[in-house]
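Board notes, transcribed. Complex of a protein with 2-acetamido-2-deoxy-beta-D-glucopyranose.
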Amino acid sequence: MERLFVVSILFTACCAVPQDLSGKMFTFPVESNVTRARLLPSGNNFTSATVCLRFFTDLTRSYSLFSTASTIQNNDFLIFKPASKGSFHVLTRGQSSNFYDLPDERNTWNSICSTWDSNSGLVQVSLNGNPSTRKIGFKGNLDGELSIVLGQEQDSVDGGFDAKQSFVGMITDVHMWDYVLSDSEIQQFAKDLNFTPGNVINWRALDFTIVGDVVIEDSPNSCQ
Ligand SMILES: *[C@@H]1O[C@H](CO)[C@@H](O)[C@H](O)[C@H]1NC(C)=O
Ligand SMILES: *[C@@H]1O[C@H](CO)[C@@H](O)[C@H](O)[C@H]1NC(C)=O
């Protein structure tokens, strides 16, 4: 417990300078409505986006993987995992695109990428390199200041958390781009090969703060 505490304080106090978290992961060891990592995006007012990350959990309930809120919408870009296996919901400015039967597994590393394009409104998820159907989402700009949170699902800007939607497990390699990644770039990410780091959120130069018991640890080389 003492170690958790010290690590949390250290990273809460320090974080004006972006950090290279290559080879590291965030461990969320407790279910709570407090514990979270806040990521500072570079830029705002997006016409398209891609978010990719890797996660490891044994949760059987629903949880949030990536929560973005603004004063305009609580679910500006939310990757939400419902309880049923293989289901993922991506919300873009409140509009839910629902995907089923994707090959996620518990107690192992999964990679997920979600793309969104405001012209077509199309949203797609790729789970461990397997693309979903494309479905309709929000058509328009994601403008307004984005509050990005890992570990909790925001029902207001950095608030309104529900422990029963919190993430418990490990997350690494979080990237966000202000464009739609090509299929081959998504494959590269899924295989943990060379890919262009995010220009909005970059795990290798991450601007973040931590609240509560998030532990930063070496990530095992288990992403295939
Ligand atoms: C966002 O960008 C669009 C142009 O792409 C512009 O019309 C709009 O006013 C911008 N929104 C804000 C809040 O700056
Ligand atoms: C966390 O839960 C407690 C007890 O239910 C509640 O009082 C508090 O407002 C919640 N905090 C947040 C940040 O949602």
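The radius of gyration is 16 Å. Residues 66 and 214 are 15 Å apart (CA to CA).
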